[in-house]
Predict the structure.
Amino acid sequence: MNNKIISVFGSKVGKEELAEIKTSIDKQWLGMGSKTRLFEDRLSKRLNLKGFVMLNSGSNSLYLALKLLDLPKESEVILPSFTWISCASTIILNGCKPVFCDVDLETQNVDYKSIAPMITKKTKAIMVVHYGGKPVKMDEVKEFDLPILEDAAHAVDSKIGEKYCGSIGDIGIYSFDAIKNIAIGEAGGLTSKHEELIEKAKKLRYCGIEKSGFEASSTKHRWWEYSVTDFFIKLLPDDIHASIGLAQLEKLDQNQKLRKHIWDIYKEELSKLQWLNLPVDAEENEQHTYFTYLIRLKNNKRDELAQYLFDKNIYTTLRYEPLHLIPIYNSTHIRLKNSEILNETGLNIPIHPNLKDEEVEYIIDCIKKFGKKHNL
Ligand SMILES: Cc1ncc(COP(=O)(O)O)c(C=O)c1O
């Protein structure tokens, strides 16, 4: 192998994205416009959604989703600790309190048994994360009879039966950042099974202005006078990002096949190593997105393996450092066994549509050599 570092995450973009961007540039239209609406419609159709509102990041989508839930101040929202920072921070920014529960060691999805003891009179919602694209068992979460916010940042093409993740709870969010299954750069969005929430999200995303002057001009006299319905910040998408999204959407099936292909090679080869636990695949009625490949070591050599691979130009990481261990969330006193085990034994190894077969072979070879070196 040459000296190029192998990334743990990545996207596959090229001439198709450039061609879409070019049509927006040719039209001299950079802001939110026809491309954004087209992306929203196409994604909505693809995922069978009641509607989709594009926004400028997954984190901001979480922020708006929580605002739409309209929870009383100081409500508690239960969420898994093993997730991204903005999941908890957006709860706090909406005046509520994140209450961390544990995840299942095998799937890294919320552990249903860990939710029940966290419920109090103040609990007003549950946030779930379809980790790596493996669907959460939504029926079990629905049993708690609380509003559910689905974080489908990793799971834009994941399904349970005929239902796409993100459309099963009350509100669902997606991320299209630079490494996601639809990779746009910085973008995201939300959907809901309640149509009025979709409409409200559209009104809020532009500083709480119901319609831009241009949108209102076909129906309204003095269209420049805004109807402001709420105080809100600006989370607008734009046609340049939507252009990339349109090209990525066309490639989604093909990119999913590439991810699955790598997943299957890892499964075949790494299952021979007794010292590793491998991630869980989709069940029969599920569809997975293979966003990430989290291995778990059965020994205490995780850090050593990460360093060994790093020295061989293979970049790995751990998604995520459990949030209850990060002091700012004031929860370091609680113990969440599985999240803490993952924090010590888990390692995400490279999987993305730009990874070449020879790179996958090289990664497997290095992992095997590490095992031999340590007599594992
Ligand atoms: C589980 C999860 N939720 C939310 C987000 C936030 O998405 P974004 O990066 O688009 O803000 C991420 C990003 O990695 C994520 O992994």
